[in-house]
Design a protein that fits this description.
This protein has 131 residues and is α+β, with helices and mostly antiparallel strands. The protein has three helices and five strands. It has a five-stranded antiparallel beta sheet with strand order 1-2-3-4-5, with helices on one face. Helix 2 crosses helix 3. About 15% of the residues have low confidence.
Length: 131
């Protein structure tokens, strides 16, 4: 009887594995790359290693967020920094609307003059890039 139960379990196992929900796939590689560009421009970093990257083209406003490290050879525990980006559109040209790094946000409507200036600088750099 034990052999029969084991055989039945082995037959059902592939069905259970394939019924498991898939890992979230990238929703918009373009939005994700645009957010990576925002991070590189803001941090003045020619290279940026990314950890978890998520995008949300279906939201209003569309956006992306990711963890990153500017270390040369980062360990998995080095991806502690996070950036969130919001855009005007889900397709190129995206139009940078707002971005937040750590607990500080940057947009055209920011009250802090320096934060508004940093947003304008990054937006100008993003607008110069071809989609």
């Amino acid at each position: 009887m034990r052999k029969a139960s084991l055989a039945a379990a082995l037959l059902v196992l592939p069905t259970l594995v394939s019924a498991a929900p898939p890992m979230a796939a990238a929703q918009s590689a373009g939005l994700e790359q645009a957010c990576i560009s925002v991070a590189k421009n803001f941090l003045l970093a020619p290279t940026l290693k990314t950890g978890v990257v998520q995008s949300f083209p279906e939201l209003d406003p569309p956006g992306a967020r990711l963890t990153y490290s500017i270390r040369q050879n980062p360990e998995p525990t080095d991806f502690n920094d996070e950036i969130e980006c919001e855009f005007d559109r889900a397709q190129a040209p995206y139009g940078l609307k707002r971005f937040c790094i750590s607990n500080t946000c940057y947009s055209a409507g920011e009250k802090e003059e320096e934060n508004r200036r940093r947003y304008q600088e990054v937006k100008a750099l993003m607008d110069r890039q071809k989609p």
